[in-house]
Amino acid sequence: MNIVIAGAGEVGTHLANMLSKQEHNIMLIDSDEEKLEALGNQLDVMSIVGSCTSIGALKDAGVHKCDLFIAVNHQEDQNINSAILAKKLGAKQTIARVNNSEYLEDENKEYLKMIGIDSLIYPERLAAEEIVASLKQSGSRQLHEFSDGRLQLLGIKLWENAPVLNLTLIKMAERYGAQHFRVVAIKRADHTIIPRGNDSFRYGDLVFIVTKPFYVPNVFALCGKSQYEIKNVVIVGGSRIGIKTASLLEKNYNVKIIEKDREKCILIADKLKSSLVINGDGRDLALLREEGIKNTDAFISVTHSSETNILSCLLAKKLGVKKSVAEVENIDYIDLAENIGIGTLVNTKLIAASHIYRYTMNVDVKHLKFLTFSEAEVFEVTAELGSKITRKTLADMNFPENATVGGVIRNGDAIIAKGDVQIEAGDKVVIFALPSAVKKVIKLFQK
């Protein structure tokens, strides 16, 4: 696939790196020559120095023959303008990053599509929605829903009280049954395992499980976890993510938002309805105690510093907060943050990549997520009539080694994947896969 990326910031660079490894032809446009030169020594991509809104630069980048144009500059007006120009110059599909929720309203999205923008992405809003979702299942590290929640993927850490510790998957199924859930992956230290029957659970494993909503409490019990109600939430950082998270939560939770900048606090207070805005430092122990940290159920840190977010969450956990959420934009810090006990992590680069990557697949992918704690990805793909995946049962299918089927949505009903299940045309199938297996899986869903 020929892909042009406008903007060599953090998101654009991450996308270029990821997509080039998938054997796509990548052209990167940015006005910063030194940055492009440095990236040229690190990534297998081509680049053009110039403005993404320059018709000449766009022509030089070959947008007339590109399959996908991705505009991910920090300035949304540049992204919108460059995507419109790219479409007029011949780009088959365009995606633009925006920073304003009004563009995502159905009426406005339709208008922008008419003038050349096929899809919009607002990573900060997606991050806020991910944070809100993480509070639904308080005992999990990660939660992702498929087909309006008919199937759920939970990431749960195993400690010493988990009943499944040291059991193989076969023994676990014999003892507890497995018709309502499926273990699709185990993150152990720095490696992700797609488990088979003889693989066992160990202390400290992060286990990814696909299940039906009604069975979630049972899954938590098997992992030695109990759910608890969240009422009081503290958010540190008046960033776009922080403000959007507060606006989504304040309808159902008691929300306090802490921001260091006094003038920004005034602006935030005008935007929010019932959240309490506090001017202060979220790392200030005295302030946290004064604001009732001992009564806080969830602590969310989304400042512009990954280090501050990690340290703030560690402090909150030390003070007794059960649920912590940190924005960690430095990918090198993610494993560290997970290993020291930060509950949920969000990363806008991975969120943006998850949204965009599905447009590079030649099948109908409705939902795709790069998992924060693992190098794996989970996606929901629709089986086409006559595709290879529909010809045999899963047990008889030569399914790639580093991938597995978690579940199937058929006519609105959820089915946990077992060997005797045969995929039918129109089924929505939840797949868990390591990067090495994704292409092989996609081929099974093509005619």
TrEMBL record:
<dbReference type="InterPro" id="IPR050721">
    <property type="entry name" value="Trk_Ktr_HKT_K-transport"/>
</dbReference>
<keyword id="KW-0630">Potassium</keyword>
<feature type="domain" description="RCK C-terminal">
    <location>
        <begin position="141"/>
        <end position="225"/>
    </location>
</feature>
<protein>
    <recommendedName>
        <fullName>Trk system potassium uptake protein TrkA</fullName>
    </recommendedName>
</protein>
<dbReference type="InterPro" id="IPR006037">
    <property type="entry name" value="RCK_C"/>
</dbReference>
<dbReference type="Pfam" id="PF02080">
    <property type="entry name" value="TrkA_C"/>
</dbReference>
<dbReference type="InterPro" id="IPR003148">
    <property type="entry name" value="RCK_N"/>
</dbReference>
<dbReference type="InterPro" id="IPR036721">
    <property type="entry name" value="RCK_C_sf"/>
</dbReference>
<dbReference type="Pfam" id="PF02254">
    <property type="entry name" value="TrkA_N"/>
</dbReference>
<keyword id="KW-0520">NAD</keyword>
<feature type="domain" description="RCK N-terminal">
    <location>
        <begin position="230"/>
        <end position="348"/>
    </location>
</feature>
<dbReference type="GO" id="GO:0005886">
    <property type="term" value="C:plasma membrane"/>
</dbReference>
<keyword id="KW-0406">Ion transport</keyword>
<feature type="domain" description="RCK C-terminal">
    <location>
        <begin position="363"/>
        <end position="447"/>
    </location>
</feature>
<dbReference type="GO" id="GO:0015079">
    <property type="term" value="F:potassium ion transmembrane transporter activity"/>
</dbReference>
<feature type="domain" description="RCK N-terminal">
    <location>
        <begin position="1"/>
        <end position="121"/>
    </location>
</feature>
<dbReference type="InterPro" id="IPR036291">
    <property type="entry name" value="NAD(P)-bd_dom_sf"/>
</dbReference>
<dbReference type="InterPro" id="IPR006036">
    <property type="entry name" value="K_uptake_TrkA"/>
</dbReference>
<keyword id="KW-0633">Potassium transport</keyword>
<keyword id="KW-0813">Transport</keyword>
